[in-house]
Amino acid sequence: MTTLLPNFLGGRWHSGSGTGTPLFDPVLGDELVRVDATGLDLAAGFDFARSSGGAALRALTYRERGALLAAVGEVLQRHRDAYYSIATANSGTVKNDSAVDIDGGIYTLGVYAKLGATLGDRRHLIDGDAARLAKDPLFQSQHVLVPTRGLALFINAFNFPSWGLWEKAAPALLSGVPVVVKPATATAWLTQQMVRDVVDAGVLPPGALSVVCGSSAGLLDTLQPFDVLSFTGSAETAAVIRSHPAVAQRSVRVNIEADSLNSAWLLPGEAPGSAAFELLAKEVAREMTVKSGQKCTAIRRVLVPQDLYGPMAEAIAARLGKTTVGNPRNESVRMGALVSRAQLAAVRDGLAHLQAQAETLHDGATHPLVDADPAVACCVGPTLLGARDPDAADRVHDCEVFGPVATLLPYRDSAHALQLIRRGQGSLVASVAGSDPAALAAAALELADSHGRVHVLSPDVAALHTGHGNVMPQSLHGGPGRAGGGEELGGARALNFYHRRSAVQASTAVLAGL
Length: 514
What we know:
Elements lengths: L2 E3 L1 E3 L2 E3 L6 E4 L6 E5 L6 H17 L3 H17 L1 H12 L3 H25 L5 E8 L6 E9 L4 E4 L7 H13 L3 E4 L5 H14 L7 E3 L16 E5 L2 H9 L1 H4 L4 E5 L4 E5 L8 H15 L9 E7 L3 H12 L4 E2 L14 H15 L3 E4 L6 E2 L12 E4 L8 H4 L6 E7 L2 H9 L4 E7 L3 H12 L2 E7 L18 E4 L6 E4 L9 E9 H5 L2
Parallel strand pairs: 1-5, 8-9, 8-11, 9-10, 11-12, 13-14, 13-20, 14-19, 15-17, 18-19, 20-21
Antiparallel strand pairs: 2-3, 4-5, 6-7, 7-24, 16-18, 22-23
């Protein structure tokens, strides 16, 4: 009999009252576990998080909360092998791709644990310098940041069940705000197991961490004005969230990360086979295949000078051709599966949509599957498309295929390249590759207004750079426009979302007590 994963809410484990939604192995097709949230008392569970978890966290200093994060990281480290097994079975990822999710989450916890130690034994933050309000300097204004007296609800995407939890939970818990996570159903098992291990270890105060697996029905209805909501997913769902009364009427603070047509740009002046040329070709192939292209930060559009269209197509295709696809349990496999049959169908439909305006430079259908039945496995090979007329190919600038698909675009000059990139209407990240530091710096600034992060690839950092798609906790994650307009991480900047800013107007003697 299939296990029904329980939810943890209100300081207790609860099984849903329904039959549950099955989670499958995307390679073998086997049912693994079920999730269900039917019948949960969300209002009582949320109240417990605010009153018990929130109060306990706010009573601690930043240093003490940082120590809690370190303890959570230690718990997760002890169970890493089990998490890898779950990721293989439920997400269909090879070990290196699972590491991006599992170890990336643990690393992020460690970064914020160290930040807590740096912030020290205080329970609020000073925001800027005091400002005089009158001729006499005795009366001044000082802005402060204090933890919001609500909870943080996370509605997460299917592609990062570990990192997607901890990159949000680390700054929330460090800020003194309790967390309720609703993982995407398809891959909820890993999130639920991590929460279970942390709860069983008893390293967090009761109510500080809760998990609801299954339907999201009723979650937003239960939010109150001082709660915050962080959503990662489609633009369509984001629009529904923004119009919900919790946001539109009760002013719940919301952070959105949505669709993103990320770009990689090779600057003019490079030759086939140059260091910068090869850097970009390698990065594109890697971004197309890591987690089977199921990353919000993956490269979707590749821009090269017109005379390099052919050579770059050959260089990327040669790398993609070496990618073995199939069952991640086979050590020869380098790219596993998409997470579900629904995702497989969406990728195939999206690919066909783009192919109506683009040529196929490398066909993923030519990749035989290793130890996987094509009739069952949610596997698809990496496909590189090309649009020789990038101005007319409007679909590549509007449609994100959330899988191992990218499109090569030739440009006339830098102004044309920037025009094409901006047709993405705002993205999480863009990469720019070249050899001239001054040109790279200028290009980065040109891209900064429409991208949350700009990743610069130059030969001097070939062995050092962290990767176009890797989200480092020290850097901002989010993007304007189509990407949702949100901001996460960025070191201490992440704490702003979970704090309230207030101006204290008082005598300097009072302000000294802050």
